[in-house]
Specification:
The chain is an alpha/beta fold. It has 5 domains: 84 residues, DNA polymerase beta, N-terminal domain-like (DNA polymerase, domain 1, Orthogonal Bundle); 63 residues, DNA polymerase, domain 1 (Orthogonal Bundle); 93 residues, Beta Polymerase, domain 2 (2-Layer Sandwich); 80 residues, 2-Layer Sandwich (Beta Polymerase, domain 3), CATH 3.30.210; 240 residues, TIM Barrel, CATH 3.20.20.140. It is 44% helix and 13% strand. The protein contains 24 helices and 17 strands. The radius of gyration is 29 Å and the shape is globular. The N and C termini lie far apart (67 Å). The protein binds 2'-deoxyguanosine-5'-triphosphate, calcium ion (CA) (2 copies) and zinc ion (ZN). One calcium ion binds next to helix 11.
Length: 594
């Protein structure tokens, strides 16, 4: 019976094993030169710009500078058998938890070893408890200060490892970093630079930022990157890859690749991992092994093993495999591969498709800018229409609008619209409100008032913790109200701060489709509500959607991309979203309310 092939290890995974061997030897207090040899090997492998498996297959492991006989044998053993006997034995001797203890800032290999041997501590969590309960100070040479340092270190490490950064924070930080890096280098040092990873896919939260660049002078780029003022900690320093921590604790990795590797490298580091695996399987079926540098022939019907193909762009790589280019937002292995194969990928909505905004605030409720200021900013930003929708009274937190104040707003809007028409502009203001869906499902303003408005957005801001049936019925009552045009931020979640309500969105979306109620994708990066999966579901159920900034200030007009990219993650096309339509067409959708 043939044995199963060993698992495949990529360069980073091989490097990690040698790193771990080095750390274990450090804890054991082994020979310094031996430790350095393993650390150097890990570093060399991480910096290689060829797949280690293809180097191995070509029998060229020992020709890699810095890889000697002993380590070369171990790589061979790993890639052939799937394990390294020496590493297995070391792991049995030194608990991996002790290695992790050493990663805590201010805990070195000697301390880790003493805590392990003398107090029998074998993990970060145990070490934390020991520090909190004053056990560590019982060791000779340790004191209260050491315990405090250990606790602080654990906190720092945890913040770096678990905290995902909200998209709305990570995106400007990353864009600013790229701009600063370019400014810190002589012109034309960098030929290409792009943010990859989850940020390029516009995930709601970001683990770390991955930036990829092409440059003839990688060392200069690395030095400039590590020298940026926002680099408060250097987490890794190589010739082609460096990592820094920003003041918030967020990690940023920068890699410099060769131009001919750009396509596969950008694809690889954009992910998601699940998408990458699907693409790799597709390549395998055609006789290619795909890695972050190239396609390499492997059991190819015509080509000898090891033949490489490079791609300067993702488009060329996807096309070579018979696939349409997949927008990064779709790369979550949720149907995009099939569509790419059939060349039936959707024409996704773009920021430039948005012609108007249907949910915004002014100083009439909790907005920071006046109606005039908001309107001027909207017009300057190229919007064709803009709905002023201040909160209805009684929300408790702020002043709001009632019938009388709405009349006042109507007078202002009429005056402004008159001015636009006079000036030959087709920009139009609409009058609406964001009416509160009260705890019992009634609305914060009477139907008679709502009936006089152009656009009514209905939202829930209070009583979000009602049980499922109650909050669902409450929302359905609003959706069924013939005056309600738009359901605002349907789940009320605040990413990282407030869970979505228990609402049964499937039912709400069904009734929204039935009644012609438009469902909002709120573009505020704290909300992104509907989220991408439900936006996709809404369109499937036949709902029309609207992407709104819910701007409370002129500055918040800039939030639109977060909404549009969320819509793209939800596979939406311009036809799914009513504010891509010119004024008159858009109004038809509002009139369609049943
Ligand atoms: P994050 O940082 O947690 O928000 O998510 P990503 O997607 O940015 O993940 P990250 O930073 O770990 O890696 C960036 C991309 O690199 C990831 O989307 C896919 C690729 N990648 C990284 N490590 C591996 C791996 O071990 N296997 C595979 N297939 N791909 C990987
Ligand atoms: Ca990342
Ligand atoms: Ca990363
Ligand atoms: Zn609002």
């Amino acid at each position: 019976m043939p044995s199963a092939p060993p698992p495949r290890f990529n360069n980073y995974q091989v490097a990690e094993i040698f790193d771990a061997i080095g750390d274990m030897l450090l804890i054991l207090g082994d020979n310094r030169f031996k430790i350095i040899a393993y650390q150097n090997a890990a570093h060399t492998i991480e910096e290689l710009n060829r797949d280690i498996n293809s180097i191995h297959a070509a029998g060229e492991l020992r020709s890699i500078p810095g890889i000697g006989q002993a380590i070369g044998d171990k790589i061979d053993e790993l890639l052939t058998t799937g394990a390294i006997d020496y590493y297995t034995k070391l792991s049995a001797q030194v608990p991996i938890g002790v290695v992790e203890m050493m990663r805590v800032p201010d805990v070195g290999p000697k301390s880790a070893r003493r805590l392990w041997e003398e107090l029998n501590i074998t993990g970060v969590e145990e070490m934390k408890v020991a520090a909190q309960t004053g056990r560590i100070r019982t060791l000779k040479g340790f004191g209260v200060k050491s315990e405090e340092r250990i606790l602080k270190g654990i906190e720092l490490l945890a913040r770096r490892q678990d905290d995902r950064t909200p998209l709305g924070d990570a995106r400007p930080l990353a864009d600013g970093l790229v701009a600063d890096l370019l400014a810190a280098l002589p012109p034309h040092t960098i030929q290409k630079i792009e943010v990859a990873g989850s940020l390029r896919r516009w995930r709601e939260t970001i683990g770390d930022v991955d930036i990829l660049a092409v440059s003839q002078e990688p060392v200069a780029v690395m030095e400039a990157f590590r020298g940026l003022p926002q680099a408060v900690e250097i987490l890794g320093a190589g010739e082609r890859k460096s990592s820094i921590a920003l003041p918030s604790g967020m990690q940023v990795d920068l890699r410099v690749v060769e131009s001919r590797h750009w396509g596969p490298a950008l694809a690889y580091f954009t992910g998601s991992q699940a998408h990458n695996i699907a693409v790799r399987e597709m390549a395998q079926k055609q006789g290619w092994s795909l890695n972050e540098y190239a396609l390499t022939a492997q059991d190819h019907p015509q080509l000898p093993d090891g033949t490489e193909r490079y791609f300067e762009s993702e488009e060329e790589l996807y096309a070579f495999l018979g696939l349409g280019w997949v927008a990064p937002e779709l790369r979550e292995n949720s149907g995009e591969m099939q569509a790419a194969r059939q060349h039936s990928l959707p024409r996704l909505i773009e920021v430039g498709d948005i012609l108007g905004e249907l949910h915004s605030h002014t100083t009439f409720s909790d907005g920071k800018n006046s109606m005039e200021e908001m309107a001027a900013a909207a017009q300057a930003a190229g919007y064709r229409y803009w709905n002023v929708s201040d909160h209805s009274i009684g929300l408790g937190i702020t002043q709001g609008v009632d019938g009388e104040r709405l009349l006042e707003q109507r007078r202002i809007i009429d005056r402004l619209n008159h001015g636009y028409a006079e000036a030959g502009s087709d920009f139009r203001l609409l009058l609406g409100t964001e009416v509160e869906i009260l705890a019992d499902g009634s609305l914060g303003l009477p139907d008679a008032v709502l009936g006089g408005l152009d656009v009514v957005v209905a939202s829930i801001h209070t009583g979000l913790r009602q049980e499922r049936e109650k909050i669902t019925q409450r929302c359905l009552a609003a959706v069924r109200n013939p005056h309600v045009d738009i359901l605002g931020h349907p789940t009320g979640r605040l990413i990282g701060r407030r869970e979505p309500s228990e609402i049964d969105l499937e039912r709400v979306l069904q009734i929204a489709a039935e009644t012609g109620t438009i469902v909002e994708i709120n573009a505020n990066p704290a909300r992104l509500d509907l989220n991408a999966p439900y936006a996709r579901r809404a369109a499937e159920l036949g709902c029309k959607l609207v992407i709104n900034c819910d701007a409370h200030s002129v500055a918040e007009l800039a939030l639109l991309p977060y909404g549009v990219h969320t819509a793209r993650r939800g596979w939406l096309t311009p036809a799914d979203v009513i504010n891509t339509q010119p004024f008159d067409e858009m109004l038809k959708f509002l009139k369609d309310k049943r």
